[in-house]
Amino acid sequence: MNDPASVSQPIASTGNDIVDLSATDPLRTCNPRFYSRIISSEEKTLYDQWGELTFDNYVWLLWSIKESVYKYTSRTDTGLIFAPLNIPVLQLTAPAGDGFYKSMVIYGSEILYSRSIITNRLIVTVVCNDENFDRTWWGFRSVEQTAYADQSASVRTFALGKLHSALSRADLRIEKTTAGYPILLDGIGRLDIPLSLAHHGHFVAYSYRLPSSAEEPLREGGQAVPASRSSILKLAVLFPNNSLYKKSAAN
Amino acid sequence: MDRRNILEELKKVLYPYTENKELLQNINDDTNLVKDLKINSANLVDIIIDAEAKYNIEIDFDSAEKIITVGNCIDAIAEKIK
Questions:
Q1: B49 with A28: Cβ contact below 8 A
Q2: Which CATH code of 1.10.1200.10, 3.20.20.450, 2.30.30.60, 1.10.630.10 fits the domain covering B3-81?
């Protein structure tokens, strides 16, 4: 079996984050000493002109976007330090029919896009380098237990359940690299399906990205793993539109 | 105040954000706040703000970005109170 830490870097990535708003302190969030460590003066100006959200939700939305960008990027740059002020959100739009807050971030040499859902209980975000998110799947749900170990187990079970269905495979498992990001493996080794997990308070979330040819998910190193066409059809059924995410939230 | 004293005071700052309080008894410079103490990344700013209030200092943004371990925290505080 491949050593998860020894294989080459993935060719694509995914990053996500979730914020349980009940675990945040709105008063503290709105204190300049706090928010100035998350959003820049330019991003504060963007809010003043935009005014779509309460300010504390805006701060946590940008936190969620920046954390997702960090996760996306740190998969290929494992020495990266999370520095929110170094991840500028250049463009932010309110939902227009599809329910997503959308942003664009230029970070390093990458142009990344985010989609976020905001409810009165949570903010959940996913980031990828494809504006249409064609091959990125994501979901979130509530959990009863908030202890770290319980959250960690719940998010893995949740993500694996979706991946088992999506890929029509039961031999999948999730491990963590020494660099700290999750990877997906089967009985032989690591699969080239970048995966991101998040948990906070009463919520857990996952995102993953399928290879360019979803019918032939590539193993790290280029070995093809055939997948049946039926699994692709299942994907279409499972993820027809964003109703999936709203349904997951009610689980 | 030497590093050992700062460490003891830092444990009080970390306490509300650390789920398993027993882990705080054996922390050292190499203890990673997120990976070892399982502190949620969303609380890292809280820790900086609380440390600033406790020592009446202001930790600059560059130092704050480097706070990954307990040792980084002590460095940032020691730099400001010396």
A1: yes
A2: 1.10.1200.10
